[in-house]
Amino acid sequence: MWNLPVNTTDDEMRFRHEMKYLVSDADLAMLRSRLKGIMNEDPHVGEGGTYLIRSLYFDDFDDTAYYENENGTGRREKFRIRIYNGSMDRISLERKSKVSDKIRKKACVITRDQFDILVNEDADKTVKSDYPQLMQDVLSLYHIRRLKPKVIVEYERRPFVYRHGNVRITFDRNVTSSSDLKSFTDAHINGRPIMPVGLQLLEVKYDEFLPDHIYRTVAMDHLRLATYSKYYLCRKYTDR
Question: What is the DSSP letter of 42?
Fold first, then answer.
């Protein structure tokens, strides 16, 4: 963990529970049918109930984030740039921190020029006070730890939300990895699938509690918690 100072609001300091499961297509179809009756679709989804997430993950010269995942380090964090549906109209810079099974995320919107500064090796990486704090953090780590982009991760997400407990359940399908970092801004990337054949990813996130009726709906006796990092596996099977 890089341990830079974090300026956050009270809401951003709150950790959320996060549970991940590897599930079959049949499991997802069954869960989708169950959840549609008790949860709402995320308002940002398209007509098909999904959207495409594309993330560009950063790591340092020691691959600290990669090896923290591999070694199961209890406290770790990652920086990433994220866009939706292959569009550069809205670019989000994010810092995700994890302690055991709890996570917190801080995000800010950056401009296309700021994106170019972060990802282009030859760009002027001077830390300026008018940059968003997260961007200042990334640039500081560039100078201290040579933090830079490492891999693209892309997948299709179907999200369900529930207000009480701030519950979010997502189905992530067709997780794809690419080491062609310059293709991040393209309409499509040339990537390779990294999930085991026939398996997809189910994520359950919530604040202080998971309502009983949602827990009972999601509970399937054969499901087992997975220590699964998209970034780690995409690095492992793409460019290592």
Answer: P
- Which one-letter DSSP state was computed for residue 63? -
Largest CA distance in the chain: 53
Instruction: Report the number of distinct structural domains present in the chain.
Output: 1
Q: Show the tokens assigned to 198.
A: 């026939």
Helix locations, the chain, DSSP H: 10-13, 25-35, 64-71, 112-119, 133-145, 212-218, 230-238
Q: Is residue 220 situated within a structural domain?
A: yes
Identify which of 6, 183, 214 has the alpha carbon closest to the alpha carbon of residue 88: 183
Q: Is the pTM of this model over 0.85?
A: yes
Q: For the beta carbon of residue 172, count every other beta carbon within 10 angstroms.
A: 21
Classify residue 4: in a domain, yes or no: no
Query: Euclidean distance between the first and final Cα of the chain, in Å?
Result: 21
Pairing verdict, β 51-59 and 148-162: antiparallel
179: in domain:
yes
Please, which residues bridge with residue 93 across strands? 81, 108
Residue labelled with tokens 């099974």? 101
Q: List the structure tokens of 40.
A: 């709402």
Position 221 in a domain = yes
Give 166-200 pLDDT, tens digit per residue: 999 999 999 999 999 999 999 999 899 998 888 99
What are the CA-CA distances from residue 174 to residues 25, 192, 199 (Å)?
A: 11, 9, 9
Distance of alpha carbon 193 from alpha carbon 154, whole angstroms: 9
pLDDT in tens, 30-87: 999 999 999 999 988 988 899 999 999 999 999 999 999 888 777 899 999 999 999 9
Q: Which residues constitute the domain of residue 105?
A: 10-238
* Out of 22-26, 98-102, 141-145, 162-166, least confident range: 98-102
